[in-house]
Design a protein that fits this description.
Protein name: DUF4197 domain-containing protein
Keywords: Signal
Number of domains: 1
InterPro entries: DUF4197
Largest sheet: none
Distance between the termini: 77 Å
Signal peptide: 1-23
Organism: Pedobacter frigidisoli
Structural class: mainly alpha
Radius of gyration: 32 Å
Number of helices: 10
């Protein structure tokens, strides 16, 4: 009787073990199918973007980029403290600067340079709305060409469609800013001092035109930095849409 009980218990244990193993196998199969399904879903979500998604992704990326670039330049020392965009003396006045510094008029020269950069920083506050307007007017063809184009394709687009607007918008602002920060006065003092020297050729500079062009050049340089960042730095792709659109571009360029 005792042997029969032991045998029954052994059979029951074997049966339970087999059932448990089968259950685990079934559960494993279920989990595997779930994982495979999730993988398929994820792959589909991050696959080839639609034309509409490309348009929205490019606009989102450019809005982030131009906002960051314009914001950096429109604060105090945005131009002056950035060696890549800092505005120096106009080319025709660099000889003037060198001559005046040689006779101890460093402060006068420094005042001019600081005020030119302050005027550009003041004007840069008006850049963002112009860029945002250009982004909104962008066609799907423009967006696709930018996405699959060179690393500066977006910057080239902005130069093409906004330069004229920026010049028109910036020119009166720069004129006002030059007066507001005394750049006009400082530059007039500088050239007056120089023109009094014997045997020198008088210097005349259209400060508004010079600073306007330099301010715009600086803006495009900052936009180019932001464009390069989002193309080359995965962590800069801050949304699922940006990851999908630029991930697709990465694959197309391999």
């Amino acid at each position: 009787m005792k042997k029969i009980n032991i045998l029954s218990a052994s059979l029951a244990l074997i049966l339970f073990t087999n059932l448990n193993v089968n259950a685990q196998i079934k559960l494993s199969d279920i989990f595997k199918k779930i994982i495979e399904k999730q993988g398929t879903t994820t792959t589909g979500a991050m696959g080839t973007p639609s034309t509409f998604e490309i348009g929205q992704g490019i606009k989102e990326a450019l809005q982030i980029g131009v906002s960051a670039g314009a914001d950096r330049l429109s604060v105090k020392d945005g131009f002056l403290g950035n060696l890549a965009v800092k505005i120096l003396m106009p080319p025709e006045a660099q000889k003037v600067e060198k001559t005046l510094r040689s006779i101890g008029l460093n402060k006068l020269c420094d005042n001019v340079i600081v005020s030119l950069n302050r005027a550009a920083e003041d004007a840069a506050t008006e850049a963002k709305p112009i860029f945002i307007s250009a982004i909104k007017q962008m066609t799907l063809t423009d967006a696709t060409n930018i996405l699959l184009g060179n690393n500066d394709a977006a910057t080239a687009y902005f130069k093409r469609v906004t330069t004229s607007q920026l010049m028109q918008k910036f020119s009166p602002i720069v004129t006002t800013s030059l007066s507001k920060v005394n750049a006009t006065k400082y530059y007039s003092d500088l050239t007056s001092q120089y023109n009094r020297l014997p045997l020198v050729k008088p210097v005349n500079t259209n400060l508004t035109e010079y600073v306007t062009q330099k301010a715009i050049d600086g803006l495009f340089l900052e936009v180019a930095k932001e464009e390069l960042k989002i193309r080359g730095n995965l962590s800069s792709r801050s949304s699922t849409l940006l990851q999908k659109v630029f991930g697709y571009a990465d694959k197309k360029k391999i």
